[in-house]
Design goal:
The chain is mainly α. It has 2 helices and no strands. The protein has helices spanning 2-26, 42-67. It starts with a helix and ends with a helix.
């Protein structure tokens, strides 16, 4: 149960970081929900995306190894 929650939190965090960075790079402003709370720069959104991936990917590896 804990791994599933961490996986969801990690993926949501990574997607929000990617949307914020992508919106600022290719759009008129950040996309997603984080820009409604904070005014962040592109590097900050990239860091948020990387942290989300750092949370999500190990939980996915553990889940895949458990099914083998």
């Amino acid at each position: 149960m804990k791994n599933e929650v961490l996986s969801v939190v990690g993926w949501v965090t990574a997607v929000q970081g990617a949307l914020g960075a992508g919106g600022q790079i290719w759009g008129e402003g950040p996309w997603g929900l984080l820009h409604k709370l904070w005014d962040l720069s592109v590097p900050a959104y990239v860091v948020i995306m990387v942290v989300g991936l750092a949370i999500a990917l190990p939980t996915e590896v553990v889940r895949k190894r458990g099914k083998l």
